[in-house]
Specification:
The protein is an alpha+beta fold. It is built from eight helices and 18 strands. It has two domains: 4-227, P-loop containing nucleotide triphosphate hydrolases (Rossmann fold, 3-Layer(aba) Sandwich), CATH 3.40.50.300; 235-338, OB fold (Dihydrolipoamide Acetyltransferase, E2P) (Beta Barrel), CATH 2.40.50. The two termini are 40 Å apart. It binds adenosine-5'-diphosphate and magnesium ion.
Length: 342
């Protein structure tokens, strides 16, 4: 079993606490993402997993093996992990094949065996015919595929990727996402993919750890994060949506059905509560809550409509037709997710 277990993982740089008490079990073979805004500690966490950074507190396990704690530090080359960086980190003076074969050379794997493994890895990323080129002659996407092949060649149990698509243009990112999916399927390795881009994390990962200011906010499937965010911060960070303050009980005439936490009945609660409403659950209707259109943005497949309710709160909706600015309309909300009281 090569599950990766982070136990109360913490990292302090000088006075700054950068990773705080992270507990996480990453299942063997899963494609996981570490997702969070810039500066939240993703790279630091990944570097701790790789052994490039020492942890300040906690423990890190791979399978049953302790990789690191306050006194233990398994060196990176003994961890059976491969890493892919945003910057590719290829050697410009070596050919593509030499770059890919470098980890094998370090392990004294030479001759025909090395050649075969290099060519197999290059074939997987569809760069077999580029073996003798210089990385300088390749496009950004091709360079990133060379970096992937170099990672693949040593058959790591765990593959760590730090924003590998951040330097590529939008079009290429879509194609490369498919390369990562295939790569994951072929290798069966455990993937930990760092990104600040939630669409990318959701498109690729089966499990996502959302980080904020060094802390783990939520761990779950993309669907969990979207449908059942654990707190207001995650609700705002993932997907589009509005957080409304609604007087309890929340099932006012306008809220047709509300998914509630913990068997909330609304009977004993007199407080105001935040409810997350996704735009696909807001319907422009004949009757309901009155609202005014603030703006309406064409998105190709539909319009994104920003509304202001009569009590001043903002609400976003999707609609299939354009609406006029300042037009008065009615809305019905079909579903809401009650967030913990702030
Ligand atoms: P992310 O990858 O999520 O953008 P990082 O892990 O790179 O975040 O950084 C988290 C915080 O730790 C930042 O405030 C950064 O400035 C700080 N940091 C990262 N590496 C070091 C270092 N070697 N020394 C001091 N501070 C660091
Ligand atoms: Mg980073």
């Amino acid at each position: 079993m090569a599950e990766l277990k982070l136990e109360q993982l913490s990292k302090v740089f000088g006075e700054q606490s950068v990773v705080r008490n992270i507990n996480l079990t990453i299942p063997q073979g899963a494609f996981t993402a570490l997702l969070g805004p810039s500066g939240c500690g993703k790279t630091t966490t990944l570097r701790i997993l790789a052994g490039l950074e020492q942890l300040s507190d906690g423990r890190l396990w791979l399978g049953g093996k302790l990789l690191a704690d306050k006194t233990t530090h398994e060196p990176p080359e003994c961890r059976d992990m491969g890493m892919v960086f945003q910057s590719y980190a290829l050697w410009p003076h070596m050919t593509v094949a030499q770059n890919v074969g470098y980890p094998l050379k370090l392990r004294k794997i030479n001759g025909a065996i090395r050649h075969k493994r290099v060519m197999d890895a290059l074939d997987i990323v569809e760069l077999g015919s580029y073996a003798d080129r210089s990385p300088l002659e390749l496009s950004g996407g091709q360079r990133q595929r060379v970096a992937l092949a170099r990672c693949l060649v040593s058959e790591p149990k765990v593959v760590l990727l730090d924003e590998p698509l951040a330097n590529l243009d939008r079009h290429l990112r879509g194609t490369m996402e498919q390369t990562f999916r295939d790569f994951h399927r072929r290798t069966g390795a455990t993937f930990v993919y760092v990104t600040h881009d939630q669409a990318e994390a959701m498109a690729l990962a089966s499990h996502i750890a959302v980080m904020h200011k060094g802390e783990l906010m939520q761990w779950g499937s993309p669907q969990d994060l979207y449908q059942q965010p654990q707190n207001t911060w995650v609700a705002r960070f993932i997907g589009k949506g509005s957080i409304l303050s609604l007087p309890a009980p929340v099932n006012t005439p306008y809220l047709d059905s509300v998914l509630l936490h913990d068997g909330f009945t609304g009977q004993s609660c007199h407080s105001v509560q935040p409810v997350l409403v996704r735009p696909e659950h807001v319907q422009i209707a004949e009757a309901g809550l009155s609202a005014q259109v603030e703006h309406c943005i064409y998105q190709g497949e539909r319009y994104l409509v920003a509304l202001r309710l009569s009590d001043g709160q903002q609400l976003t909706a999707f609609h299939h037709l354009p609406l006029q600015q300042q037009q008065n309309i009615y809305v019905r909300m079909h579903q809401g997710w009650r967030l913990e009281a702030a």
